[in-house]
Every structure is written in C-alpha cells, then in structure tokens.
Amino acid sequence: MSSTISIVIPCYNEAGNLIPLLNRVTLTCQSYKYEIVVVDDGSTDSSPSELKLLAEKVKHLKVISLKRNFGQTAALSAGIDNSNGDIIIPLDADGQNDPEDIPRLIEKLNEGFDVVSGWRKDRKDTFITRKLPSILANKLISIVTGVHLHDYGCSLKAYKRKTITGVQLYGEMHRFLPAWCVWQGGKVAEIPVRHHPRTRGISKYGIFRTFKVIIDLITIKFFSGYLSKPSHLFSGTGLFFIFMGFCSASFAIFDKFGPDKFTKFRIPLLLLAIFFGLGAISLILMGLLAELLVRLYFQVRNQKPYLLADE
Ligand code: UDP
Ligand code: MG
Predict the structure, then answer these.
(1) pTM
(2) I need a labelling partner for 23 at 20 to 30 A (CA). Which of 32, 175, 232, 287 fits?
C-alpha cells in the first residue's frame, strides 16, 4: 500500500506567493496520493482571500485559519493536527523551499528512516543576520542534543506521522523534532535541498530568533532529561550547594579559630556559606514545585497551543 502525503504549509502574510507555490506543489505531487494543508496564521494581507479562491479550485487543498497570528510553530502544529497523511512534509509558503525536492525526501524516507531533514547547503539568505547565527546555532544544537545535523532550521523535512504523534510544539520547537525522534529511537537522515531567495513579501524573522532558539534548546534538553523527574536536577544541585556551604562554613571556622596561617584568606567565607545554604533551600523547594507542575503537565497535555478561527 502506498503512503499518503500531507504537505503542511504555515502561511503568514504571503500574498502573491501562494498561487505559484501551490502550482508547483500540485505539479510535483501528481504521482502521489496527497493533500496540501495551508494554515493561515492570522494573515492581515490578502492571503486569506487568495486562499479562499484557491480552496475552490485546487482539489487537494485544505485551508485552516487560525484566530490570530500564533507563530510558525503553532501554525505547523495546527496543520499536522488537521492532516491525515502517513508522511508529513512541512514547507514554507514563500517559495524559498523547492517543492521539487519533495520526491527525494520521500524516497529517502522510504529507505527506512523516520525523519529526513533538508539541508539548505546553498542557503540564499543574508550572511551576518541569518547564515552565521544559523551555523553557530546548528553546531550548538548538535552538541547539546547529540543529533548532528547541518540545518535544524530548514522547514522542508519529511516525517513519518507515527514518529511525531503526540508531540506538542511550542516556541521555536518544531526545529528540534528530528532530535526528539532520535531520542524516541527513530532514525534520521539529512539530504541537501535547494533554497531560493524570497521574491515577494518579507521574512518574519531576524537575528533575535537565534536567542529564542537557544532558550528553547535549554527547555527541550530539560524536558528530555528531567521531564519525569525535575527534582533530580533541582534537588541534585541543591545537595551540591549544601556540600559547598558545608565546606565554606568549615573553612570559616578554621579561619576564625585555627592556626594563624588561615587568616591570610580574605574571602567572605561566612557570607558564602549563607549564600549556599539559602541557595540549597530554594533549589530543593523549586524541585518540589517542579514535581507538582510536571504532574499537572501530564494531566493537561491534551491542551493545544493554538485556537482555530471558528472556535
Ligand atoms: N510564518 C507563519 N507565522 C509566523 C511567521 C512565519 O506561519 O508568525 C510562516 C511564513 O509565512 C513562512 C514560514 O513560516 O511560510 C517561514 O517564515 P519566513 O519565510 O519569514 O522565515 P525565513 O525563511 O526568513 O526563516
Ligand atoms: Mg522564508
């Protein structure tokens, strides 16, 4: 049985880009069983009316409209939730990704991978504000996650649906999906894909996105390592603080009552001991709070990070 493909396209103010893009997608995907899910992420230009017309003409197209602008990750998440294919292929609406790469991604996926990630080897964006931060961020993400990819940020990827079912996407987290899949025991491959300069509309991002990505990286690392046991991290650090506090206090006592040579230390040891003591108490209490939150988190996991327009 051949797989069905869902091409998921988040769209925010992409007037003029949608018609040529959908033409190219339908041409490329003729030989597949496929659907195109465009998520209008609260566009304020003429994208919604363009999409309305397109939905009447393009038979494989499904349009999902979000109530306001929720961001690319939430839009992608809404698209995945409202798609049916066994294979999910996110694609940018601005034509920077090349739909003609889709068959190559599917071919690679069918070799037995769970995720195939696109690598914009010849990326057509500015160097200082986009490419350089991206190179550094990719190195950092690779080191922290242990999953080495050149281009986490490339939207064009292919996923087997079953490998990403149940994942909730927040912030900039869609880019970490390949790492998440590997952590779940999946297999990931990377293939070079084409990239084109934006010809219409403007990019929604600048250099600040890199900082958001790094913050999300810390979160995902925490989630992967400590989600079910946050107190191990907090109380573990708390115990280390107790040890440091104990050392500082002992040193302070020696400094005060011990032989003369200790008096040459001019470190405020007592203050340091108090700092470590208070730090330890806070950390251990934070660990307990985190445990409570985690239990709540598991209970409310069905909550979605977006609202549909007709909700
Ligand atoms: N996008 C979105 N919601 C947003 C910002 C962007 O759905 O709040 C979409 C946008 O329409 C495009 C994709 O996400 O299809 C990537 O955005 P963009 O091209 O601006 O990013 P860049 O290619 O510059 O990284
Ligand atoms: Mg773009």
Answers:
(1) 0.85
(2) 175
